[in-house]
Design brief:
The protein is of the alpha+beta class and about 170 residues long. It has 2 domains: about 80 residues, Winged helix-like DNA-binding domain superfamily/Winged helix DNA-binding domain (Arc Repressor Mutant, subunit A); about 80 residues, no CATH class. It has 8 helices and 5 strands; from the N terminus they run αααααββαββαβα. Bound molecules: zinc ion. The site of zinc ion (ZN) has 7 residues, from loops.
Length: about 170
């Protein structure tokens, strides 16, 4: 196994999705094109069910293609799998854009809502309307509720969004 294959973006993204087993399957897919479940299981020494689970997952994310062909020796149909390396970048971009959407929604929610808290880490946060309902007294520990300063959380969310956006421009 060469160092280049180790750093391949297809292998890297597979690892991020499913960990070490996926890395082994991804490397196997790169070293043999149009390979079958069984061949991958053999070369990775992973259980066939695990290999299939990984393949179907990667297939579902359009990171690999599968072609159904007849196994000439045995007469039944098998799938031959192939890495779609050109799909790695679109996949990463779509993951990033989903993450940005999620973080932005959270940020907007934090910006639009005031939260009240008693200071006890195990107690819940109260939205303004709920805090009025309980007369600004924690339902769990009976301590007074104080307006929660979420500026640090908002700043952290903003920072994370900028980080992801900057990655995109690389
Ligand atoms: Zn409390």
């Amino acid at each position: 196994m060469t160092k280049k294959k180790f750093e391949d973006s297809f292998v890297k993204i597979s690892g991020l999705i499913g960990g070490d087993d996926y890395v082994r399957v991804a490397k196997s897919l790169l070293s043999h094109e149009n390979t079958t479940d069984e061949e991958i299981a053999e070369s990775t020494e992973l259980k066939i069910n695990l290999v299939r689970k990984c393949l179907y997952d990667l297939f579902g994310r359009s990171l690999i293609t599968g072609i159904r062909v007849r196994d000439t020796k045995r007469g039944w149909f098998v799938y031959r799998w192939k890495a779609q390396r050109d799909q790695v970048e679109p996949f990463v971009e779509s993951q990033k854009s989903k993450a940005i959407t999620r973080l932005t929604q959270r940020l907007n929610f934090e910006a639009e809502h005031e939260f009240y808290h008693c200071g006890n880490p195990s107690c819940m946060k109260y939205e303004f309307n709920k805090a009025i309902e309980v007369s600004f007294k924690c339902e769990v520990c009976s301590q007074p509720l104080k307006l929660l300063d979420n500026s640090k959380l908002k700043a952290a969310l903003e920072l994370k969004i900028h980080e992801i956006q900057n990655e995109e421009n690389e």
